[in-house]
Amino acid sequence: MRITANRLGGLLALTFLFLTAPAHSQAPAPAAASPTPPAYRDVERILQAPGRMEEGAFVVHAPRTDLQVTMMGQPLPPGFDLTSFIAWTFRPEGYLTSGYLVVREEEMNPVVSELRAAGIRIAALVRHMIGEQPRIMYVHFQGRGSGPTLAQGIRRALGRTGTPLPTPPGALNLPPPAGLDVNRIQLALRRSGIIEGGVLKVTQGRPGVRLQGVELPPGMGPFSVAYFTGTDANALVGGEVVLTEREIDRAIDTFRQAGFLVAAQHIHLVGEEPKLYFLHYSGTGPAETLARVVRSVFDQVRGPAVGSRS
Description:
Elements: H1 5-20, H2 41-47, E1 51-54, E2 57-63, E3 70-71, E4 74-75, E5 83-91, E6 94-104, H3 105-117, E7 121-126, E8 136-145, H4 147-158, H5 182-189, E9 194-196, E10 199-205, E11 210-211, E12 214-215, E13 223-230, E14 235-243, H6 248-257, E15 261-266, E16 272-273, E17 277-285, H7 287-300
Antiparallel strand pairs: 1-2, 2-5, 3-4, 5-6, 6-8, 7-8, 9-10, 10-13, 11-12, 11-16, 13-14, 14-17, 15-17
Helix pairs in contact: 2-4, 3-4, 5-7, 6-7
């Protein structure tokens, strides 16, 4: 077969596109289970919720499958920021934990009392969303000391909520909506994600953060996240972006100019260096359009955290 110059050019172009296509154009895998490291087995057993290693931290997830929450006219799967997040790291001098518990308004103060009784610091009492029904609050905490002792305090706090414990099998193994093309979203984001709790979840860690003298692994909480649900034509995205002081204005402007809602801006930790701020956002519209906006903001904050010291 004779190959003309035009055909040869086309073949070369196709070859280039194949070789340079991002790996995350493949379908995202569900969050993988892995054996619990020995240092965290007691923590997982006490909390009665599954954990796994994520970017250097052991993370326990406790989904609020008891809640039926809607936002912007869409039902929220448990993976859409309706899962309590409890992260751990172990050092020879003891355990460090941080995270948040998802609570109803009437559950918040009993939860706070249980955490404080265990010597766990309350870092923030905040909302992450705007317009959700029923209204959801988040108790951010941090603690250091004996892993089992800290875990017992957190477990008692969870017991003050309607969180189903032990976590029902498969509670987070829900697929995304059938009308949502997660591959196209990942291509627009230029980032890969996982399927968890009925959403596409994409995270971006923020290295270079220290808490109480310990450098935090990205999986411990200083990360940006986006949750996608809905359909290609009418998607819903929400999440948070971790910022230093100098990055706040630009991130807010990018979201607002694109028609996104800014739901909250606050701290999640006390005493970290550099000081971090967390901007919560949401938006609706065509999935790829939303993904490009999120990508623009994520690109602004992709490097190590550098800012004013707390």
